[in-house]
Each structure stands twice: as structure tokens, then as C-alpha cells.
TrEMBL record:
Main location as per UniProt: membrane
Membrane topology designation: Peripheral membrane protein
Places the protein is found: Cell membrane
GO biological process: one example: response to antibiotic
Domain of life: Bacteria
GO MF annotation terms: ATP binding; ATP hydrolysis activity
Lineage: Bacteria, Bacillati, Actinomycetota, Actinomycetes, Micrococcales
Position of the signal peptide: none
Protein name per Swiss-Prot or TrEMBL: ABC transporter ATP-binding protein
Pfam families: ABC_tran
Keywords on record: Antibiotic resistance, ATP-binding, Nucleotide-binding, Transport
């Protein structure tokens, strides 16, 4: 078996009485693209800092490619983009990237790194004059200049507009197609859904879900059916609706019913047959947002691990 890109074992970090990271086990295989999701304060950035060896764990360990994180970083195998990581404001973009490139043994050319980050046209722009989104992409160029096998990105698209985000993920796809392992923390559920092949959700310092986007969404499997029963028949219909096939959850507000079904086709067929006064029927699939809310609004210390020991 190839050495994992990242191995976190019983990893913990306390700040006083706060368990910011509360015993995490995680193996990231080489070539995986993993999204780290979680509400504010869940422990994502602290986990990333521990993974990169930037902070010492209270207990447990983190290794990159089987070695101490700092060794992997010095060897240029790991590139990182952290929240608030600064570039020297009075240098140009290309000078900033060249400074970092000089610290590595076999870096990409500065032009190549800028090309990968989609910022070739900003080469001579002063860092202090960059917009928030341009600065993020310049920091991405710095992260890739060592030609890393593993990229760790903390909210890489924060401050980017929609077009910049799309462009960023296009560059990222080129890297992942070549087998680069990527771990990124994000608040954008659609990014995790679209670009990651594995999603880990953290809440209150713990991993509460770990699986493919489809597996995470399946936590809130089923579809919602919403309809009204007109003509004053809502009371009489309520019992029938409750007994429809595959109904899991039923709510009623006056003559409007909302139910969750594990098999919306058969529920709908029976509804139309047995409640002919049902009107304005809407069927909606549950989304990544629903899964995220379900997993992170549960008691913070409850685990819903979907797949273990991936
Ligand atoms: N240096 C520190 N000293 C004390 N508490 C800290 C420190 N760094 C983080 N924390 C706390 O640890 C918890 C986890 O923070 P962390 O930044 O890892 O969360 P996060 O999931 O990255 O949040 P966000 O999405 O807001 O960036 C928070 O309660 C935070 O206030």
C-alpha cells in the first residue's frame, strides 16, 4: 500500500478548557481531493495547522507522507494556502513568487506558477494593489510554486467573486487530474459537492461525517412532498396521508401538508389515487445544505460517521 498523504491519529488540540480538535483520526490517500466542511469554530483551521506542523498537538500525531510534517514541507512536497497568509505588500506578484521559489530545491518557473494560478497578467502588479480575489490567486501561485504533491488550502476561494471561483477550480482540476492530493476547507457546500471526491464534516472539534458527496447527502435521503388538500377535506385526508407508503415524517399547517418520503414515486401515486383533492403538489430533493444542517445541528458531540477507516 502506498504511504498515505496525510495520517492523523487521535489528534487533539486544547486551548485552555476548549477542545478545539477533540480526537481526530483521518487518513487521506494520495490522489484524493478532500473537502473539510464545518460551521465557524468547528476546528478546521486548527486541524490544518496541526497537519502542517504549525502548532503542536496536545495529544496524538500528524504525519505527511509518513514523516514529520516539517520534513515534508521542507522537501517541497507540500504546498499550503492559509487564512490570512501574507505576501510582502511592496513587492510585485512575480517577485513574491520568486522569493518563495528560491527556498525550494526544484521549483516551477515563476511564469509556470502564475499560469497555473491564472494570474499571468498580474506579474508586474504590486501586491498592495491587488483585489481580494487576485490576492487569493497570488497566494495560490505561491502554494504551487514548489510543484507539491499535496496541497492544503484553508478557504481558498474566500473573497473571490463567482467568475474567479470558477477560474480557480478550473486550474485546480488540472492539478488534480495530474494526481495532486488536495485538502481544502470551505464554507461553500456546492464547492465540496462539485470538486471533492470525499467530504469530511467537522463539528465542535470532531469528525461527524466522512464519505463521498453522495453518501453525505444520503444522510438526509428521501424527498419532500408538499401539497394542499382543498375543499375542506384536510381533516378527513390526514389519516389517509399518514398511511401512504414510504412516508417518514408528516407535518401539517392548516390544509397544507409536508411529508418526507423514502420512495416519492409510490407515495405520489397513492396520494393521487386516494386523495383526489390534493393540489399544488411540489416534490423537492434534499441537498448538500440539508445534509450539512442535519449533521451539524445535532448535539455537537454526536458522531454520524458514514464511512470509517477509508
Ligand atoms: N490560538 C487560539 N487560542 C484560543 N482559542 C483558539 C485559538 N485558535 C482557535 N481557537 C478556538 O478553537 C476553536 C476552533 O477554531 P478554528 O479556527 O479551528 O475553527 P474553524 O472551523 O476553522 O472556524 P472558521 O470556519 O470560523 O474559520 C474556536 O472555538 C476558536 O475560537
Amino acid at each position: 500500500m502506498t504511504t498515505p498523504a496525510i495520517q492523523l491519529s487521535s489528534l487533539r488540540k486544547d486551548f485552555g478548557h476548549l477542545h478545539a480538535v477533540d480526537g481526530i483520526d483521518l487518513t487521506v490517500r494520495q490522489g484524493e481531493v478532500l473537502a473539510l466542511l464545518g460551521p465557524n469554530g468547528a476546528g478546521k483551521s486548527t486541524t490544518i495547522d496541526l497537519t502542517l506542523g504549525l502548532s503542536r498537538p496536545t495529544a496524538g500525531s500528524a504525519t505527511l507522507f509518513g514523516a514529520d510534517p516539517r520534513a515534508a514541507i521542507v522537501s517541497g512536497r507540500v504546498g499550503a494556502m492559509l487564512q490570512g497568509g501574507a505576501l510582502l505588500p511592496e513587492t510585485t506578484v512575480s517577485q513574491s513568487i520568486a522569493l518563495v521559489a528560491a527556498a525550494h530545491r526544484a521549483p516551477l518557473s515563476v511564469a509556470d506558477a502564475m499560469e497555473r494560478a491564472g494570474i499571468s497578467e498580474l506579474a508586474h502588479q504590486r501586491v498592495s494593489k491587488l483585489s481580494g480575489g487576485q490576492l487569493q490567486r497570488a497566494r495560490f501561485a505561491v502554494a504551487v510554486v514548489s510543484d507539491p504533491q499535496l496541497l492544503i488550502l484553508d478557504e481558498p476561494t474566500a473573497a473571490m467573486d463567482v467568475e474567479s471561483r470558477r477560474e480557480f477550480w478550473r486550474s485546480m482540476r488540472e492539478l488534480t487530474a495530474q494526481g495532486t492530493t488536495v485538502v481544502f476547507a470551505t464554507h461553500y457546500l456546492d464547492e465540496a459537492d462539485s470538486y471533492a471526491d470525499r467530504i469530511v464534516i467537522m463539528n465542535a472539534g470532531r469528525i461527524v461525517a466522512d464519505g463521498t458527496p453522495a453518501e453525505v447527502k444520503a444522510v438526509v435521503s428521501g424527498r419532500s412532498l408538499r401539497f394542499a388538500v382543498t375543499g375542506g377535506g384536510a381533516d378527513a385526508a390526514a389519516e389517509v396521508i399518514r398511511s401512504l407508503p414510504a412516508v417518514r415524517d408528516l407535518r401539517r399547517l392548516a390544509d397544507v401538508f409536508t411529508l418526507v418520503s423514502d420512495d416519492s414515486d409510490s407515495t405520489l401515486r397513492e396520494l393521487l389515487r386516494r386523495v383526489p383533492d390534493a393540489r399544488d403538489i411540489e416534490i423537492t430533493s434534499h441537498s448538500m445544505d440539508d445534509a450539512f444542517l442535519a449533521l451539524t445541528s445535532a448535539a455537537p458531540r454526536t458522531a454520524h460517521t458514514i464511512t470509517e477507516g477509508v
